[in-house]
Automatic annotation (TrEMBL):
Keywords: Cell membrane, G-protein coupled receptor, Glycoprotein, Membrane, Receptor, Signal, Transducer, Transmembrane, Transmembrane helix. Its main location: membrane. The lineage of its organism: Eukaryota, Metazoa, Chordata, Craniata, Vertebrata. GO terms for cellular component: plasma membrane. CDD domains: PBP1_pheromone_receptor. This is Receptor ligand binding region domain-containing protein. Residues 85-484 form the Receptor ligand binding region domain. It comes from Pleurodeles waltl (Iberian ribbed newt). The keyword Cytoplasm does not apply. InterPro entries: ANF_lig-bd_rcpt, GPCR_3, GPCR_3_Ca_sens_rcpt-rel, Peripla_BP_I. The keyword Ubl conjugation does not apply.
Length: 546
């Protein structure tokens, strides 16, 4: 699977290099290309971004009887858009500060991948080219300069980007890609992330399972490179701690209902109560909805950090299945001032944001008029700026859980502190050849990468931020419990933590009394749902064959 990503990256680099040798004169042929929309603000130095804002795209069968059209995106979700807003919020904070990057204004430019490797790579190439038209082989001599790129959101989108970014020596910081594969600095030398990789997560999950004496369980993983590799690593960790994985089933957002029913049938053939899910949330959506229609409600789900709770993505039936779920999320603290920032979002102040009108329409259930359109005006609610977000802020933006949004915020600060250190260099004492320093007016990406790798700063929350030799942030997780009310509203309640720096027996803490299970009970789950099977005495291999 990963070979496919490698092949894609190699092809892109060859394309990049080939086009650098041609096209220097007008009249030579050019690659067909489409303009890809982005949201941006001006600055002396910009930070690029490639994020998932829409959860999918419309796939078209290509007959090649006419010119292929670009992918069109669908499924706008506020939860994903929140990560982009956090990037803008951080940049505004930094520009208003006097102690960080004085006399330098940061800007940003962000592209939406729509959960597509194709669009993720196009967005990256557009940023590397310096304009909205991806031009492999060229960095257009335009101002401002780009310090690096934040993204992608998911590991399977991040890997092909990271291969090319590594070859080009451009720093890339992901705020949520957790695959341990990305910790390989031989393959991804310029990749960093503000979240921990899967290695510590697997340990945390194995200890959480042991905390409740859950040893006989199943797994559902995404049918992607990162899902398959991460799932296998997690299985080995669980079995290394005495657990047994009875089955490992794959899911994907492109799976049909028939394929999902096959997965459910396989799950029901085993006497397993606890199921681990290692998958991005979009791939699990149809599974959860189908579990409800099939009346399969006797399972407890435990989600890895790969899965982000996204309220708008799931319907009420799916949330009923998720009720009582436990999950891991990278440790998150509050973002002082972020809620105030969100309160002031308005169409009149967000004209340059290509995503904002979709956001406003989603929140208020309205439609923006197009031109002189009069059709359906009597039945459709039109959008306007005569309303305010106000009381909608907390439920719409899910402010009780800022997982990954906070880490997008941290990624911006990492770039800012790296640039600040770069500017503070004393000529003759610099880290580069013969003690030279980098020039903020002519920065090279590999110079920024040097400072990022040696970065150590304290976030506004007081948290120590740095990257280890694998480019990973310090590992720390919150343990969350999904609690769904009768009216279908959900909240994520922090019920524990995992800190690998603590003594082994103190690394994981769980407040079991704060957990509400799927039946609404707070009774210790292991004590009343656990089944004693005679065949548990057999080896795990024998169990899997049973």
């Amino acid at each position: 699977m990963f070979a496919a990503s490698l092949g894609l990256a190699v092809s892109l680099v060859l394309l990049w290099l080939t086009s650098a040798m041609v096209g220097t004169r007008q009249g030579l042929c050019r690659l067909p290309r489409w303009r890809q929309e982005s949201v941006s603000t001006e600055g002396d130095v910009i930070i690029g971004g490639v994020f998932v804002v829409h959860s999918g795209y419309v796939y078209r069968e290509l007959a090649f009887e006419e010119e292929p059209k670009p992918l069109s995106c669908e499924g706008f979700y506020v939860r994903y858009y929140r990560d982009v807003l956090a990037m803008g919020f951080a940049i505004r904070e930094i520009n208003q500060a006097t102690d960080l990057l004085p006399n330098i204004t940061l800007g940003f430019q962000v592209y939406d991948s729509c959960m597509s490797e194709d669009r993720a790579i196009k967005g990256m190439l557009a940023l590397l080219s310096g304009n909205q038209w991806p031009s492999p082989g060229y960095r257009c001599p335009t101002h401002p300069q780009m310090a690096g790129i934040i993204g992608e959101t998911f590991s399977f989108l991040t890997v092909p980007m990271a291969r090319v970014m590594g070859i080009m020596h451009y720093p890339q910081i992901s705020h949520s890609a957790v695959s341990s594969f990305l910790s390989d600095k031989y393959q991804f030398p310029s990749f960093l992330r503000t979240v921990p990789g899967n290695t510590f997560q697997n340990t945390a999950l194995a200890q959480l399972l042991a905390r409740f004496s859950w040893t006989w369980l199943g797994m559902v993983i995404s049918d992607t490179d990162s899902g398959l590799q991460g799932g296998e690593e997690l299985r080995m960790e669980i079995e290394g701690h005495g657990g047994c994985v009875a089955f490992m089933e794959k899911v994907h957002q492109r799976y049909t209902t028939e394929e999902v029913l096959r997965v459910i049938a396989k799950i029901q053939t085993y006497s397993v109560t606890v199921i681990i899910v290692h998958s991005a949330e979009v791939h699990v959506k149809l599974l959860l909805e189908t579990l409800y229609t099939q009346n399969v409600a006797d399972k407890v789900w435990v989600f890895t950090a790969y899965f982000a709770m996204t309220s708008g993505l799931f319907d009420k039936q799916a949330w009923k299945i998720l009720n009582g779920t436990l999950g891991l999320a990278p440790h998150t603290t509050s973002m002082h001032g972020f809620e105030h920032f969100l309160h002031h979002l308005h169409p009149t102040t967000s004209r340059e944001d290509v995503f904002f009108n979709q956001f406003w329409a989603k929140v208020f259930g309205c439609k923006w008029p197009v031109g002189n359109e009069t059709e359906n005006l009597a039945t459709e609610r039109l959008c306007s700026g005569n309303v305010a977000l106000d009381e909608k802020i907390t439920p719409v933006f899910e402010l009780n859980d800022l997982s990954y949004t906070y880490h997008s915020y941290l990624a911006v600060y990492a770039f800012a502190h790296a640039l600040n250190t770069l500017m503070s260099c004393t000529p003759g004492q610099g880290p580069f050849t013969e003690g030279t320093c980098a020039d903020i007016n002519d920065i090279r990406p590999w110079q920024v990468l040097h400072y990022l790798k040696n970065l150590h700063f304290k976030a506004r929350s007081g948290e120590e931020i740095f990257f280890d030799e694998r480019g990973d942030a310090p590992a720390s997780y919150d343990i969350l419990n999904v609690q769904v009310s009768e009216d279908g509203l959900f909240q994520l309640v922090k019920v524990g933590t995992f800190d690998p720096s603590a003594p082994e027996k103190q690394a994981i803490t769980v407040n079991a009394s704060a957990i509400l299970w799927g039946d609404g009970s707070s009774q210790h789950f292991g004590s009343f749902f656990w089944e004693s099977y005679a065949f548990q005495a057999l080896s795990c291999i024998a169990l899997q064959k049973y």
